[in-house]
Amino acid sequence: MRHWFRASVLLAAVGLVGASSPASADEPLRIGMVQGMFRDIQPSMVMALARPFRSLMERQTGLTGDVEILADAQLMAKKINDQKLDLGVFHGFEYAWVKAKHPNLVPISVAMPQGGIVQAAIVVHSDSQAKKLDDLEGESILIPRGSKAHCILYLDVLRTGLPKTAARSVPKAGLTPEEALNAIAAGEYPAALVDASSFTAYQTLQPGAAKRLKILSKSEKFPPGVLLTRKGALNDGTLAKLRDGLNSAHKTAQYKPLMMMWNLQGFENPPADYDQQLEKCLQLYPVPSSPPSTETTKKE
């Protein structure tokens, strides 16, 4: 659920400044998100979880907001480009995938996790003899419930070229990242795939157990998630107000507890080297050759 709440906080924060958008009371602000942000959440629950934030936007701004869940980032980028969406919430690596094809999409703010790093890690027991991923045989990697998309992408790319019997996922659903790391520390399973910030938090909260763990492999840093709009859709003054509202959301009594609880540091202006981060990410994680073919969407 943590990954969903990060996206939810962003949607709620957009509600803080929705009144400065070009939308009017009878023109809801149209916000897109990809289905991949809701890993391990039943489709029937996704829109139910969005309702409180839709209500919040209406209370804060007098505007209604339509949240649309799309099959993939390419489809969402096209809908923003075609003026069918006003805003889109993308993983950083997804923005890297669509940026060349849709150069008129521009970032408003990026979502930064605690520690400011978006990174995946494969963690093993400190006594493990494994030196690299293909040393893990059979069903050996725990994937916690709600694992973040950049972690899944990292493991998929890392598995490329490995024997089908190597580094397979353990079919054990329902574990949180902390429970998965506990299982590795107890010697119950060989490895776990976690976000680097989850492992850092585990080291702080359970230093004794953390001493029985080590990182076998970790990804390069991913570019942080981003809120995009279409170039020219908002004037400079509106963009400034929107950025200010997002970037100050972590200071408000309403949103600060959520950000702390779900390990989100806050929103920031895109870093100066963001384009370079995207280019590097695209080299490491090219656009998938077989994106989801369905264009089914859901609205709330």
UniProtKB/TrEMBL annotation:
Task: Name where it's found.
Answer: Periplasm
- State if Signal is listed as a keyword: yes
Where is the signal peptide, in residue numbers?
1-25
One GO cellular-component annotation of the UniProt record comes to: periplasmic space
Q: What are the record keywords, sorted?
A: Signal
Origin, by domain of life? Bacteria
Q: Which Pfam families does the UniProt record give?
A: Phosphonate-bd
Q: Which Gene3D superfamilies match?
A: Periplasmic binding protein-like II
User: Which family does the entry's similarity section mention?
Assistant: Belongs to the bacterial solute-binding protein SsuA/TauA family.
Q: What is this protein called?
A: ABC transporter substrate-binding protein
